[in-house]
Structures are given as structure tokens and as C-alpha cells.
Amino acid sequence: SARRPVDAAAPGPLDREPVREPLLTGIKAIDAAVPIGLGQRELILGDRETGKSSIAIDTIINQRHSGVVCVYVSIGSKRASVKETIDELAANEALSHTVMVVADAAEPAPLRYLAAYAGCTLAEWFAYQGRDALVVYDDLTRHAEAYRDISLLLRRPPSREAYPGDIFFVQARLMERSFKLNQALGGGSVTALPILETQQGNISGFIPTNVISMTDGQVYLDSSLFAEGQLPAIDIGRSVSRVGGSAQFPSLREAASNVRIELSQFGEVRGFARFGTILDETTKAQLRRGERVTQLLLQPERHPVSLAVQVALFWALKHELLEDLPPELAPAFEARVGELQSHFPDLDALLRSQTGLVDSARRAVEAWIAAAKREAVSGRGP
To answer: Which among 48, 242, 288, 374 is annotated as catalytic?
Structure first.
């Protein structure tokens, strides 16, 4: 019913607004430490098989009731992998708000190259209708390779790693088409989650450095964390959001304000502890607290966590309400917190609307935490 050019100009600066509205991914490590806002470009990068696509799929699943339309662009993947992704989205009731744009590995290079622009154009159509759209590019490494194939066939002079000289322009033009429109144009937005594959953790490669410079931050997945079973394998120390707390719910920002600092301190202290150094009580307390934070950030796939549950968990951690809870009961405590959410049905909406944790919300959160601790210790259900 409508036609749009696949290669369109991005909105100008006067047509945009600053990124201030949060986009909840449902992944605790991202929402707490690397928040993403509507209209932002947040790169997901890491080695092969470290869970990059899984983070994007979980983010799409978490938009089921948010009103955000999702566009998943699959570039150069095997057809079996594409089918698995579609089945995952269908099993989690996410296909009703998701558009799949597929140019699999069997498609010619021009189609793999154009797929990213086609997906972006679909997302823009929703944005110009006043809606919020999320577009996932999986992945831009294969997109760059497709453009390199085309350029070499056209006998254009190759540059570094045989990529053509204008590869930066090609992908920067795509990234600039992520935006938050001003209210005069309807207030819609396009949020981009480009995915890149690195080789042995090398983020200084040609394409990774290019795309890092175009985006508003990156979520870095570490293969060593993945091998240790810390999932999602997000290295918070090397991940960053240049939008930061301005695109985070104030209640979550208040509850999770010390997560990055504590993880940084834990990393430093753990390095000394490995050498068998005699540690004082303060250092031992830092180690125990760092292990609690790390344990809290663990999360299985396809289990997005709501805003209210995240605030309760990080509030309990920040105010040391879990110090008397044995570490082995931490998973049971978190499970009880999720189960008790039905006892506080209005808390999620209250936390979204308030400028922080007002007294009524704080009392509700602390009562919720106390009940979850009792049930985790006793081993009873809610």
C-alpha cells in the first residue's frame, strides 16, 4: 500500500530530539549498566558463538507489550539458522510485532547488501507513523563482505583488508538512519542494534573500529566469560552506552547506580586473590560482594526480566539486604522475587511514571524483598 526508497536520506538535526526514553531489553546487565534509549545505535559485538544474536532476540521478545515494532534483518546466515530464529520468536509470541527481512547465504551479494537498507526502510515507515521501531542487523560483518564482493567484481580499487574505500560511508549512512523524531514529525523513533563478529576478541579490526565510531556505544561479549558459564557473557568493563543514565528509568538508575563500580573493584581485587595473597577483611568483603553482583547478573536465555523485578533485585543488592542470605540461595531468592510480582501488580507502572523511588514504591519493594528472602530460606512457594 506504500512505497519508499530503500536508500533514503536520514533526518536532519532539526528534525530530531535527544535520546531520553528508555528501551528495556529485559536483560539485567544491559538495562542496569549499559542502558539503551529509543533512537539509539548500540553495537553488539563479540566472537563467534558468544550469544550476540541471542541478546537481540531476547530484546525483541521483551517488546511484546511495549508497542515497539521490531525488524530483524538476517544477512548471510544459513537458512536453517534463520528458521531457528523464526521458531524461537514464534514460540515466545514475538512474531506478531516482528518483521523478518532475510537474505540468506544462498542469495547473491547485491541482495545481502540491500537487505539492511530494506529493513531500515521498513522501520522508518513505522517511525514516520509516530511509532517506535527497533531494527536488528545480524550482522554487519557479512553486510560489509557482500559490499566488498560487489566492489571487487566491479573492479573498484581495494583498500585495507580488500574492502573498498567507501565502506565507511556505506555503513555510516545506514547507522545515521536511526533517530528520535521531534513532536512536530510525530515523535517516532528507529533504534538500531547492529551486530558484529570479531576474531579472537580483536575489536581493533577494520570493520569493528569503523562501526564503533558510528554508534552510541557497544555491548561487548567476552568468549572467556562465555566459557566460564557467565551468561549472558557481557563484559561490563568494556561495554559502554554514550547515552547513559539519560535513557534509563530513574527508579532503575537509583537502584543500580553502583553496579559498574562494584564490578570494576571486584575485577581488580580478584586479580590479587589469584596469587594467593593474604587479604584483609575489607578486601574479602569486596570479593563476596562482587560475587553477589556477578551472580545477580546471570540470566538464562528467553527469560526477560521486568522493570519492577530488576529494581527490587538491585535495590536489595545496593542496600545490603542480602548480606544475611547464603550465596547458594541467591537463585532461589531471585526466583521468589519473580513469582511475587503478582502481589504488586501496580508497581511496574508506578516505577515507570515516577522520577525515582518514592516512599510508597520503596516500602513496597522492601516488603517484596523481605517476603522473597523468607520464602527462599524456607524453600516454600509464594
So the answer is: 242
pLDDT class of 358 with cuts at 50, 70, 90: low
Tens-place pLDDT, residues 190-205: 999 999 999 988 888 8
* Residue 257 near residue 319 (C-beta atoms within 8 A): no
- The band of 356, judged by pLDDT with boundaries at 50, 70 and 90, is low
> Rounded distance, CA 316 to CA 362, Å?
11
Helical (H) or strand (E) element with 72: strand 69-75
Helix, strand or coil for residue 244? helix
Distance between CA atoms of residues 178 and 221, nearest Å: 23
Give the range among 54-68, 133-147, 174-188, 237-251 with minimum mean pLDDT.
237-251
The burial of 243, by beta-carbon neighbours within 10 Å (0-12 exposed, 13-18 middle, 19 or more buried), is given as buried
Report the amino acid identity of residue 347: L
| Burial status of residue 136 (CB atoms within 10 A of its CB: 0-12, 13-18, 19 or more) | buried
pLDDT at 380: 53
**Is 242 one of the catalytic residues?**
yes
Q: In the block, which residue shows the cell 519508499? A: 4
Contact 333, 285 (CB under 8 A): no
- Residues 83 and 54: beta-carbon distance below 8 Å: no
First-to-last alpha carbon distance for the chain, in angstroms, is 51
Q: What is the pTM of this model?
A: 0.92
Find all residues with CB under 8 Å of 350, minimum gap 6, and list them.
358, 360, 361
Nearest to 139 by CA among 71, 195, 80, 77: 195
Contact between residue 54 and residue 224 where contact means Cβ atoms under 8 Å apart:
no
Give the position of cell 506478531: 96
